[in-house]
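Notes, Module 5: Reading structure tokens.

Key idea: the token line is not a picture. It is a compressed description, and you learn to read it the same way you learned to read a sequence, by spotting repeated patterns. We will look at two proteins. The first is printed below with its tokens.
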Amino acid sequence: MSPHKKIEYAIFDMDGLMIDSERVYTDVTNDILAPYGAEMTWEIKSGLMGKPERAAAAHLLSFFPNIPLTIDDYLSQRNAAQDTHWPHVQLLPGVPRLVAHLAAHNVPLAIATGSTRRNFALKTAHLQHVFGHFGANVVCGGDEGVGRSKPFPDVFLAAARLLGRAVGSGDVDGEEGGDGVGEAEREERGRGLVFEDAIPGVVAGKRAGMSVVWVPDENLLGVGSSQLTEKPDQVLRSLEAFVPEEWGLPPFDDVPVSQQSGKEE
């Protein structure tokens, strides 16, 4: 038997999970702060991850009240610098193999990201051998009708609805409308698997009633675990370590039979 709940569809975060964008965010931000003798630590960064850009900027600048930068000033500098990096950002380990495998086995796939639609296009245009598998099943920050950002479950529920899943709306914990989530909707949510690297995304996935695989940066493990108000179902150092059959999915096609659930060749 699979050690985890059998799943039928998967929803991916993007930044820091599929692409190495967190390195860009860190380098660009520290370049902006450097003239003021300031630096963004991982303790600060852990509170930014998964937030919409203005909320994240406000959180960052709150640590440096003596720096004469408004939110708009900071975002203007940050966005201009980041735009030069996005066409060259690289995929993280394990992503091409996993996405191609799930797509080949007709597992419905979607993306739920806090990135704006514009930035999503900049980050993925050169990576269509992977992102092309998702088609139009993409929910971006600021999309009309999506609702609240992570850690609320809205983005993952919107992504599931794009896949034709009758998941309804609201938090399964009974907060923010969760009392209206029917049993059939709970069961449908439970068939979904979320892949996330950020703490707000983990919380959002669990509040959506889905299983969550957390793939955090090793720096986040050291400073951010105490911020988790919901427990992920699995923690991996890389998507390379994901084992599909643990979730009731077909094993990777390039894995020898002898390594598939202990079967003999």
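Here is the second protein, with the sequence above and the tokens below, as before.
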Amino acid sequence: MTSTRPRLSVVMAVWNAEKHLAEAIDSVLGQTMGDFEFIIVDDNSSDSTADILAGYAARDVRVVILRNDENLGPYPSANRALEAAKAPLIARMDGDDICEPDRFEKQLAFLDANPDHLLVGCSYISIDEDGHEQFVRRNPMDWRVAGWFTRFRMPMVHPGFCFRAQLPDGTPVRYDTSLRYSRDYELAGRLAKAGKIALLPDILVRYRMHSSNISMSAPGEQDAFARAVAWSQVSQHYPEPLHADLAQFLDVSYRQQEPTVELVRPAVRGLKAALAHDFGSWHKAPAWAKRRTAGILSEAFLRGGGPRAAKLALHMALEAPEMIAPFAMRFLELRGVVEQRPAP
């Protein structure tokens, strides 16, 4: 049995999720930390989702089912669950992903030990439609790294979010429904501005990638909205003289422009100027910031490999030779050869 006010509210919004729903719910109900309510919003499903949910609600008092009278979409549905949530902490979950058994225990322990943090994410294993492992993404970030990185990129997978139900000023946390996509990224950025966020090294989620994911079914639209979220943060944080160069970097990073030799120079110039703004100069920037800068620059320009990427890599080396060593270290970090750890 849960207490009157549980420690955690787990929020899930589902629509026609019958294929993987039971596995997702079982992974939540089987957690080592059991003091939670599990609020699931059925977004007017037409398959057997409603029957599956009713069965779980009948067997476990922690499961609370809400059903929309019409299909509202995932984020308005998530906001409906957030409005019903009683706990001071929220964990997000999707109907096709899987939690590792100790996910909530580890994330709540972190937030209990770090009261100035508003959001903590986790590392993950990518799985395919049938649950087969595709790759492991272990990308830990403390608050310094995550706060900086979030200006440019989404730092963590959404079903790994665990956050406080209220901002420091008491405002309830909700998703911005004015955006069609990338509302999870917008929320991560908003929480990073209002407090601190972090990403654990622990693999606590199995994240399913399949044709129904937004990132797979509508990549162009999602990239455009994510670019808009990043630009909102970049343009507010950095002074106007940096905007033109950083805008071109974001265009390449979010596939609004194809990477070309001509765009390497403004991207390098913009990112180096961003580090100078944040830390005084490239040379004064901490090692982690140099590694991350080299990493996001390379991800933007070298995706896909091939002869064009080789030509772009040569131009990047000529334009920014000081980034070669940080990029090599970042490459080794991402492959687990060296431990990812920010400089003290």
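Summary for the second protein:
- Residues 238-334 form one domain.
- The two ends are 44 Å apart (CA to CA).
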